[in-house]
Amino acid sequence: MDRLRGWPVTLTEGPVGLRPLRLRDVNAWRETRLRNADWLRPWEPSNPETPLFRTGLGPYISMVGTLRREARQGLALPWVVTYRGAFAGQLTVGAIVWGSARSAQVGYWVSGTLAGRGIIPTALAMAVDHCFFTVGLHRLEANIRPENHASRRVVEKLGFREEGVRRRQLHIDGAWRDHICYALTLEDVPRGLLAQWRQTRQKTAHDGSS
């Protein structure tokens, strides 16, 4: 696939936004990750190209270059997550497979100071709808460590289906770790995941006020 349909794109829902990752995000990215090193370390791939504690520009430039190249090849959608216009984290749809699969994997992180505000569920709902209804994907997976309860709550709130454990799937925080596979297909959200998430939040707010 020469060019990804529907990319680049910026998406917004209230104070939450998704926009393409840029080279000039380096300072915000570096500062946020250093400040959240302990928050992120247990869930981070052990990847020497993007270590948490390096302060140079090299790892970030390498990551952005790789992701932008994959986006041009139709293999990834690398977004920055914003909250009230400020850098808040990342959400990347990657490992896109076309042909008869039309599937991809999604990964995300958010600053610990912003956790619990519905930012990542909202961002993920927007990303899912864009992937299904504009890009043309059919299946999205999120593979999460069993111990990462916060990240598991995100996909469970959105109705991702738990499909089992993938043994020692990824090298995380210095060792090979098991991951739980969660997935959604287009048929699971025929009217869109964002609309479903809005209804869930409205119901929660109503129940909390009654």
UniProtKB/TrEMBL annotation:
Q: Which residues form the N-acetyltransferase domain?
A: 16-187
SUPFAM superfamilies from the UniProt entry: Acyl-CoA N-acyltransferases (Nat)
Q: Which keywords does this chain's UniProt record carry? A: Acyltransferase, Transferase
Report whether Acyltransferase shows up as a keyword of the record. Answer: yes
Enumerate the Gene3D superfamilies for this protein: 3.40.630.30
Q: Please indicate which superkingdom the organism of origin belongs to.
A: Bacteria
Family assignment from sequence similarity: Belongs to the acetyltransferase family. RimJ subfamily.
Protein name in UniProt: GNAT family protein
Give the originating organism: Sphaerisporangium rhizosphaerae
